[in-house]
Automatic annotation (TrEMBL):
Localization per record: Cytoplasm; Peroxisome
Function: Component of the signal recognition particle (SRP) complex, a ribonucleoprotein complex that mediates the cotranslational targeting of secretory and membrane proteins to the endoplasmic reticulum (ER). SRP9 together with SRP14 and the Alu portion of the SRP RNA, constitutes the elongation arrest domain of SRP. The complex of SRP9 and SRP14 is required for SRP RNA binding.
Organism: Oryza meridionalis
Assembly and oligomerization: Heterodimer with SRP9; binds RNA as heterodimer. Component of a signal recognition particle (SRP) complex that consists of a 7SL RNA molecule of 300 nucleotides and six protein subunits: SRP72, SRP68, SRP54, SRP19, SRP14 and SRP9.
Domain FMN hydroxy acid dehydrogenase: 1-285
GO terms for biological process, alphabetical: SRP-dependent cotranslational protein targeting to membrane
Protein name: Signal recognition particle 14 kDa protein
Length: 402
């Protein structure tokens, strides 16, 4: 096998190994493939627990069976795709006359109580399953899912602040930003170009994950720097699996991890937890400019050369050094500040959003203090003005003698 130096090499090798029809099915996008190219131009570091991705089918019993099997298998979350009621028009599949062999079965439906599915295979099976997608699906179905499973339900396919707000209102436990790698709707923006607005809308209430065309550790670094809680990858896993099986997948993930670690080291970062501010001053300045009530931001700039030299001297003398970051908040009129030690920060082992949520109490505490002070002022009675003494009259009374 040829030398593989990055995950993109697996795609080239898979192209040589897989039948053209199969390769194009995975690699191509829809129509003009504009979104696919945009993903490339704009571009997981952290181990993730398995999550079952589902669609909402007309037969709710089928959905429940899939969820129950996922729970028994030890899955930790349910990922609900909300933006793909129809399959995109993939012209590469049309040109290749893509069909599934008659002996191909979908393992996901094996053993389920679905008579018609059990008797269908090949492309007929794919067509039948596609026809069973419930196109009347609405946000309320997130609530229904929560009644049939205790697992957290993450919503996949969000790329706008408005949809983020609605998903959270209906109980989504997390957001997965995705344009499906350009395979569904063309001319969608690259997900990373929408990341800041989605993170800002989520505001620490739920984690925000992202996928679509992440091929380098530097791509992962950018997403974490902009506030993502994690990154998902799709095609690299398929291509590395096609080339070298399980060993290929392990190698692809290892290369992504190594690239991320090198990027962090060269950027002066020791942990993916300390994000996003150490990486992009633009994001920090965005929060600093904000006058919206409840805005909170964290400043954790890397130390200046002078500060670093001082820290080295203190460490050489054995003096205790405690690094702290500044947490600031605004209620729209005034700013308040508090600090957080590095040990406390690392103890959270969570994303930037979680830190914002944890330290929102600083703003609430100030608001309570202001309300208490205002109430005390209202209770103080105003002093009545002193009565002026009447000056003695110079006129004599009418009954007095002259």
């Amino acid at each position: 096998m040829a030398l593989v130096t990055n995950v993109c090499d697996y795609e080239e090798l898979a192209k040589q190994k897989l039948p053209k029809m199969v390769y194009d099915f995975y690699a191509a996008g829809v129509e003009d493939q504009w979104t696919l190219r945009e993903n490339r131009e704009l571009a997981t570091a952290r181990a993730a627990a398995a999550a079952e991705t589902i669609m909402i089918y007309k037969d709710r019993n089928l959905v429940q069976q899939l969820i129950q099997r996922a729970e028994k298998a030890g899955y930790k979350a349910i990922v609900l795709t909300v933006d793909a009621p129809w399959l995109g028009r993939r012209e590469a599949d049309v040109k290749n006359r893509f069909t599934l062999p008659q002996n191909v079965m979908l393992k996901i439906f094996e053993g389920l109580d679905q008579g018609k599915i059990d008797k269908t295979n090949g492309s007929g099976l794919a067509a039948y399953v596609a026809s069973q997608i419930d196109r009347s699906f609405s946000w309320k179905d997130i609530k229904w899912l929560q009644t049939v499973t205790s697992l957290p339900v993450l919503v996949k396919g969000i790329i706008t602040a408005q949809d983020t707000r609605i998903a959270i209102e209906y109980g989504a436990a997390g957001i997965i930003m995705s344009n499906h790698g350009g395979r569904q709707l063309d001319y969608l923006p690259a997900t990373i170009s929408c990341l800041e607005e989605v993170v800002r809308e989520a505001n620490g209430r739920v984690p925000v994950f992202i996928d679509s065309r992440f091929r380098r550790g530097t791509d992962v670094f950018k997403a974490l720097a902009l506030g993502a809680s994690g990154v998902f990858i799709g095609r690299p896993v398929l291509f590395s699996l096609a080339v070298d099986g399980e060993a290929g997948v392990r190698n692809a993930l290892r290369m992504l991890r190594d690239e991320l670690e090198i990027t962090m080291a060269l950027s002066g970062c020791t942990s993916v937890v300390l994000q996003p501010d150490p990486f992009l001053s633009e994001l920090t300045s965005m929060y600093e400019r904000s006058t919206e009530k409840g805005s909170v931001w964290v400043t954790m700039k890397r130390s200046s050369m002078k500060c670093q030299a001082r820290l080295k001297k203190m460490a050489a003398k054995g003096e205790a050094v405690e690094l702290r970051c500044l947490v600031r908040a605004t209620d729209g009129k005034k700013n308040i500040c508090t600090s957080l030690s590095a040990k406390e920060y690392l103890k959270f082992q969570a994303s930037y959003a979680t830190v914002l949520k944890a330290h929102m109490h600083a703003l609430k505490k100030r608001e309570r203090k202001d309300k208490k002070k205002a109430a005390e002022v209202e209770k103080i009675p105003e002093k009545a003005p002193k009565k002026q003494k009447k000056a003695p009259s110079s006129k004599k009374s009418a009954g007095s003698k002259s």
